[in-house]
Amino acid sequence: MLGVLHRLRREVLNRANRRNVDVLGQDVELWGTVEKRHPKSHMAIGDRCRIEGLLVTEIATSRLTIGKSSLVGSRSIVDCVETITIGDDVLISYDCIIADADNHSLDAKRRVGDLERWRKGTHDWSDVQKGPITIGNGAWIGARAIILRGVTIGDGAIVGMGSVVTKDVAANTIVVGNPARVVKELPADG
Question: Are 100 and 133 in contact (CB under 8 A)?
Fold first, then answer.
């Protein structure tokens, strides 16, 4: 009985989430949550992806793109204010955070009243530091990793579990730690 209820819940989520994706490939499983917080934002998901986490586009100019055969694991959050591009065959494990903006001003005086503006849906994104995120083809983001604004992760790179990525990661390297640092270079041909 529980298996039937579980499958039914996934199908309901899948149908509801599909309405929030502008370009949706074939055989995509949308088992998490997809939120377009502004109707003019754009979200595209390639063929054969599985989304178990939360995808969010915040404003009209937000652009979130996920290539084919990629995974966003359970309880992971991909929060897009500007641009987040995730390549093909990317594995994003569980409990990861990928955010291309700080979400609040660095100026304490400007943060006063942010909660009320969030409640009203009038949050001012103009004073928030932002930077596009790109995750290259074949990258693997380990569980509970955090990818911060303005970061590019190269093709085939691995971000170790629990790492905090504040700077670009070269292709075919392994980074670990807080802040993440290179611990190994991998052969380019895998």
Answer: yes
> Are the CB atoms for 80 and 58 separated by under 8 Å?
yes
Q: Which residues are catalytic?
A: 123
Instruction: Say if pTM beats, i.e. exceeds, 0.90.
Output: yes
Q: Alpha-carbon distance 105 to 158, whole Å? A: 31
- Report whether 169 contacts 155 (CB < 8 A): no
Element spanning 81, H or E: none
Q: Using 50, 70 and 90 to split pLDDT, how confident is the model at 127?
A: confident
**C-alpha to C-alpha distances, 24 to 29, 43, 67, 113, 143, nearest whole angstrom:** 10, 8, 10, 37, 26
* CA distances to 6, 13, 31, 34, 98 from 2, in Å: 6, 16, 17, 24, 32
Task: Give the domain ranges of the chain.
Answer: 2-185
Q: Which CATH architecture has domain 2-185?
A: 3 Solenoid (2.160)
